[in-house]
Amino acid sequence: MNKYVKELVELSSIDKSLNSFNPRIEAINKKIEKEQKKSQDLSNSIAKLQQHIAENKDKIATYEEQITSLNEKLNEIKKKSNEVTNEKEINALTVEENITKEKIAFANEEIERLNKVIEAKESEIAKLQEELDAQNSILEQVQKSSEDEITDIEKQKQELFKLREKIVHEIDQKVLAFYEKIRKWARDTAVVPIKKHACYGCFLKVSDKTYSDVLKGEEIVTCPHCDRILYIELEDIKEEEA
């Protein structure tokens, strides 16, 4: 195999490995985001319930103020009842007293109902809080394992970067520029093998002459169909020689 082609094959393999880390990191981040969303959804549900409880407590406070005011009104009615002697006025005060008592009864019923609603929502919050605590524990574990994975990936990347820098420093710069030009559009398939007389970039058959030129390894040969750099793997050369 041509010296430059050998270097390009190694360089292409490194670039492919480096690029393969990105989907892995994205998958790790998505896994974290998924667990974060679960925790956030539970937190949001708890916050909504707490808001409802606060609103109901405000309503209870309003009803309690009404009851205080209505009780004061009842006391005033009783005082008036002791003072009036006219039957018409007594009847009017009686009607007013009954209406006031009904309002007090309604307010008390609403307070009782709202307290039951609050109790139910507090029970629901307690269950959700248990779920949230468990979910946060899962999230913490996922974040820890993800940090370890990313640390390992970064270590591998640094090792590959060093190896790439070594090759880039030693390779002919014209050859490197040629490779980089193809890699801009071909990405991880800038350098591909020939298998069964076909380019493994575009999967089209190459001529016997192209195959022979690649096999000789005297120079860099590109696919006549897609312009990718071609090479033949060692095991395929052995099969050819056999």
- C-alpha Rg (nearest Å): 41 Å
Order of helices and strands: HHHEEHEEH
Provide the helix percentage. over 70%
Strand portion: under 5%
Count of β-strands: 4
Number of domains: 2
Terminus-to-terminus distance: 17 Å
The helix-and-strand class reads: mainly alpha
The second-level CATH architecture of the largest domain is Orthogonal Bundle
Strand order across the largest sheet:
2-1-4-3
Oligomeric nature of the chains: single chain
Name the descriptors.
mainly alpha; four-stranded mixed beta sheet; single chain; 242 residues; Helix Hairpins; 2 domains; 5 helices; rod-shaped
Could you please describe the fold and organization of this structure?
This protein has 242 residues and is mainly α. It has 5 helices and 4 strands; from the N terminus they run αααββαββα. It has helices at residues 3-83, 87-170, 173-186, 208-216, 234-241; strands at 191-195, 198-199, 221-222, 229-231. α1 runs antiparallel to α2. The longest helix is centred in the middle third of the chain and has 84 residues, at 87-170.
